[in-house]
TrEMBL record:
InterPro entries: OSBP_sf (IPR037239), Oxysterol-bd (IPR000648). GO terms for molecular function: cholesterol binding. One of its GO terms (cellular component) is perinuclear endoplasmic reticulum. SUPFAM superfamilies: Oxysterol-binding protein-like. It comes from the Eukaryota. This is OSBP1 protein. It comes from Calyptomena viridis.
Amino acid sequence: ENAENMYFFSELALTLNEPEEHVAPTDSRLRPDQRLMESGRWDEANVEKQRLEEKQRAVRRRREAEAVEALEEGKDYEGYIPLWFERKVDPVTGELICVYKGGYWEAKDKQDWSVCPDIF
């Protein structure tokens, strides 16, 4: 109903980005630029998006520098390790996939997000 006024998105698609309480601080629904955009504050959203992107670039540069330093010192460098997923090869397709490794729901139950990085 009324889909033509909602960009022909389904009701499910329209609600996927709705804020939810008690989620990880890394949940993409908490992105400050997105929240600003959705409230129609376009200029502020663009400034915030630029800030977030530069923050991400700085983290990437730091990780790259750490990898170079480890290589020069002959040490292993693991790099970024996702908190809730791990990469595995799908035994059927042979493709690299991400598989949930646990921990999120337990952290959510406890509301202990201490392992989450500050990404926003």
